[in-house]
Write a structure and sequence with these properties.
This protein is an alpha/beta fold. The protein is built from 7 helices and 10 strands.
C-alpha cells in the first residue's frame, strides 16, 4: 500500500505524528510530501503526492494527514474498491481529540484527513485547489467539486476516523477578510452547476 503522508514538522504536531506513525508504519510504504509553499499548503502537497504516485507507476494510493488514524478494515475495503469512478473516504464518522486526548465529539460531515484514490479519480475534479493556503476548507471545496463533476459524493466505507489533537491551526486572523473563506463561497455557489464548477477547478491547475 503506497501511503502519501502530508507533513511539515512543527513542535506542536510531533506527538500526533508519532501516534499516527504507530499505525501507518504497519500499513504500507510511507512517503512524506510537502510542496514547499510558505505557508504550508495542504492542497498543493496532496496534489504533489498524487502526481508523484502516478509518475512512479502506482495505480492507487492513500493520501493522509499526519494526525489521522482510520479504521483498518475500512481502509482495506477502500483500498480494494479503489478505481477511477470515485475518490474514497475510509470512514463514515470522525472522532476529534484535543491535544490532551479529550473527546471533542464525533462528526459525520468530515470529508478530508484520509483519502484512498487513483490518480485519475483525483484529477477528474482538477485535484485540490492550491489557492487555499494555511488552514482552509480545501477538503470541503474538493468534496463539492467531486459531487458536482463526478455526479455523486465521494464513496465512503463504514468505519471511524480518529483525528488526533495538536496546537491551534495556522489560519488567517480575520475571518471577514480571509481569502480562503471567499474562495470557498465560490465553490458553494457553483455546487450542482458543472460549468461553473469546472471553471473553478481547472483553470488554476
Amino acid at each position: 500500500m503506497f501511503v502519501a503522508m502530508i507533513w511539515r514538522p512543527t513542535p506542536d504536531r510531533m506527538s500526533a505524528f508519532h501516534q499516527a506513525m504507530e499505525f501507518w508504519s504497519l500499513v504500507g510504504d510511507i512517503r512524506y510530501f510537502d510542496s514547499g509553499h510558505e505557508p504550508f499548503n495542504r492542497a498543493a502537497s496532496r496534489n504533489l503526492a498524487v502526481r508523484t504516485a502516478a509518475e512512479l507507476g502506482h495505480e492507487r494510493l492513500v493520501v493522509t494527514d499526519a494526525d489521522c488514524i482510520p479504521d483498518f478494515d475500512a481502509l482495506s475495503a477502500a483500498w480494494e474498491a479503489a478505481d477511477d469512478s470515485s475518490v474514497r473516504l475510509p470512514y463514515t464518522a470522525c472522532n476529534v481529540r484535543s491535544p490532551q486526548n479529550a473527546d471533542m465529539g464525533t462528526f459525520t460531515f468530515t470529508c478530508g484527513g484520509v483519502y484512498v484514490t487513483t490518480p485519475d479519480a483525483w484529477f477528474a475534479v482538477g485535484g485540490q485547489d492550491e489557492r487555499f493556503d494555511r488552514w482552509a476548507p480545501e477538503d470541503f471545496a474538493f468534496s463539492l467539486a467531486h459531487q458536482t463533476l463526478v455526479g455523486r459524493p465521494m464513496a465512503r466505507h463504514d468505519g471511524l476516523l480518529l483525528s488526533l489533537g495538536h496546537g491551534e491551526p495556522d489560519r488567517h486572523a480575520d475571518a471577514e477578510t480571509d481569502p480562503n473563506v471567499a474562495l470557498y463561497r465560490l465553490y458553494e455557489n457553483a455546487n450542482g452547476d458543472k460549468e461553473r464548477m469546472r471553471s473553478l477547478c481547472f483553470p488554476w491547475s
